[in-house]
Structures are given as structure tokens and as C-alpha cells.
Amino acid sequence: xxxxxxxxxxxxxxxxxxxxxxxxxxxxxxxxxxxxxxxxxxxxxxxxxxxxxxxxxxxxxxxxxxxxxxxxxxxxxxxxxxxxxxxxxxxxxxxxxxxxxxxxxxxxxxxxxxxxxxxxxxxxxxxxxxxxxxxxxxxxxxxxxxxxxxxx
Length: 152
Hints:
152 residues, 7 helices
């Protein structure tokens, strides 16, 4: 049997071997690319969390300083928005836990959102009673403009 006859008879086996080699090469290439993408994504997430931990400010203290300064404690911003959220946070966390929460900025933002969602109806009712319905959008826009993009 000559080489040509051997190749013709075993063409399926040759195609299978070539297909396996090409497939393994493609898998190896895809794995390298996927591995690099995963490392890049992990790096981006790590940098974002690091940025938030180091550079972002504590939203609770930030908003309290912004809306509840000593002169302005009677504004609707403070009494209707900040006070209900602070009451809810103080009810859910003892003083020491609240101080620890303020140090962990990501968790602080999460708990602030939970308190906002819990007290949302009370906040809206208070604003309605004070004829300041439009203030809520103004507050939320101000939070977004200050770089505290945690509320939608």
C-alpha cells in the first residue's frame, strides 16, 4: 500500500487529528485571552473599591454637614431628609457600630440607601407637609453632582 492509498483510507482519522489540534490551539488561545480579561476586570474592581475606600467621603457626615449646619437645622432638607435617615440608622446601629459603619464607606453607602428606602414615605410626607415636594429631586441631584452616585 502506498502513501496516497493510506491517506485516502484514513482521511477521517487525519481530519479528526487535525481538528483536535486546531481545537486545542484555539482553546489555549481563548484561555489566554479570557485569563487576561479576568485579571483586568479584577484589577478594575480592586481599583474602584480602593478609590471608594480612600477618596470617597462618608455620605452620612457629608450630608449632615451640608444640610444640617448649626445655623440651618430648621430647613426642610435637614428635618425631612437627613433626620429620618439618621433616626433609622441610630435605631439599627448602636453608637459604636455607627462609628464603625462610617469608617467603612461602601457599607455606609449601602446602609444609607437602606435607611432612605425604609424612610422614603416619611420623607415624602414631611416634604409634602412643608410644601417642599420638589426638594427631594434637588437633594438627590445634589448628591449625584457631589460624586456620591448611590441613589437613583
